[in-house]
Specification:
Blueprint: H1 2-7, E1 14-18, E2 21-24, H2 25-29, E3 34-38, H3 45-59, E4 63-68, H4 77-80, E5 82-86, E6 99-100, H5 106-115, E7 120-124, H6 133-148, E8 156-160, H7 174-193, E9 195-201, H8 209-214, E10 217-220, H9 228-235, E11 250-254, E12 259-265
Parallel strand pairs: 3-9, 3-10, 4-7, 4-8, 5-6, 5-7, 8-9
Antiparallel strand pairs: 1-2, 10-11, 11-12
Helix pairs in contact: 5-6, 6-7
């Protein structure tokens, strides 16, 4: 992997997210970015996440893997060179997976997906019960296999939509704790495995502190008044800062953006619906 880093030649050191917001490509490809995307329902998290995915896909220097709990990212495959992996049991019309997985053969699935670095994948787990230990064990096995995979020659960007589904802060269950530990391990070893992570959750409060403390890059959307102080502490601003935030406004800050101070941006909205049109 060191040889890969030395030989990596990049003509553009930034990936455009909005007119005033760019991801540092060096840090992204080095596996150094742990990004948290948070905001209330309707704040624009999914649209922003898809914009980031679209920009990464156009840049074509990283493999993108999305773990999708609600089946809303299956639409990526038409115009963005994604394939969908699902159980093939329950799916919406037009969202039939390209490949099926078996829960007792996760290693085989991971080896297949990770080795196929020229293709981006959506792992559709929408037919699984998010609260079941089966689903959490799936995430644990997936994360651990991603960490242990040593044949990677291309950086990977992993998106997990609504991580609090399987890593709830106040849960004392063994499966939740093990899931949290697997995600933290992935965050900490990302640099040595060329894996950057993008974790999506409605509230910071819903995620274990061990996970949020590992996040070095923040995108914070509109939140409830009760969360102003908590979110403000994470980025070092007064809680009144969040009074200005409306739907589709996001506060960006941190290592991945090379920002010394938080900024508010919303110019990612030029994305068009047909950019993510679902296959009929």
């Amino acid at each position: 992997m060191e040889g890969f880093r030395e030989n990596l030649k990049m003509t553009d050191q930034e990936i455009l997210i909005g007119e005033d917001l760019k991801l540092n490509k060096d840090k992204l490809q080095d596996g150094g970015i742990c990004c948290l995307i948070t905001g209330n329902s309707g704040s624009g998290k999914s649209i922003l996440s898809k914009k980031i995915i679209k920009s990464l896909n156009e840049d074509n220097s990283s493999q993108i893997i999305v773990i999708d709990f609600e089946g809303e990212y299956c639409e990526l495959r038409k115009n963005n060179k994604f394939k969908v992996v699902g159980s093939g049991i329950n799916y919406l019309p037009g969202n039939k997976p390209d490949f099926n997985y078996e829960l007792d053969k996760i290693k085989e699935l991971c080896d297949f997906v990770f080795s196929d670095e020229g293709v981006n994948y959506v792992i559709d787990v929408s037919d699984l019960n998010c609260n079941s230990s089966l689903t959490k064990n799936f995430i644990i096995d997936f994360a651990e296999n991603l960490i242990s995979f040593r044949k990677r020659t291309k950086p990977c960007c992993l998106f997990i939509d609504d991580l609090s589904n399987v890593c709830y802060r106040y849960s004392k269950s063994e499966s939740d704790i093990n899931c949290k530990n697997a995600i933290v391990k992935l965050q900490r070893l990302g640099r040595s495995r060329l894996v950057s992570s993008f974790l999506i959750s409605p509230r910071i409060k819903s995620l274990p502190k061990d996970i949020t403390c590992e996040c070095n890059t923040m995108l914070m959307g509109k939140i409830a008044i009760g969360d102003f102080e908590r979110n403000a502490l994470y980025i070092g601003v007064n809680k009144n800062y969040f009074e200005e935030i409306i739907n589709y406004d996001f506060v960006a800050y941190g290592y991945g953006f090379d920002l010394e101070y938080p900024i508010i941006f919303n110019d990612f909205l030029e994305i068009k619906e047909n950019d993510f049109e679902t296959i009929k």
